[in-house]
Amino acid sequence: MSFDDDFIDRELNIASSASTPNSMCDLESEEKIEIKKVPRISRTNGSGLSLIGKSAYHAQSQSYISTLSLAIFYIPVCPLKRYRVREEGKFENGNTTRTEYAFLWELPLTKEEQIYKIIVYMALLFMIIFLFWSAIK
Fold it and tell me: Which residue range(s) make up the domain with 38?
């Protein structure tokens, strides 16, 4: 076998193992939280709420984990919540593309996302204190 044949065989094995149900993630082991209100996802000029990332794909339910984040000018600024979602369809209307999602359940934020969220809130608090202090001087 040549290098290319080895590479192709390895890629085919990875692809076939990823397509088996529950091979990428185990839905039963996830810490599920009931969704009280489905978030409204919308951005205007790149600012607003959006789903960021796709992880832990589950082939049987065709769902993945995505993080709801506040974005400013297309840059995710603060993670808010994590959800297991499934894409229901994409619709094009002129220049815009809209994706509809089915929200299956909410998941807790990862430790990294929690730390990042605390840092963002602390920075916002310091900015407010600084602006208030500079206004009264």
Answer: 3-108
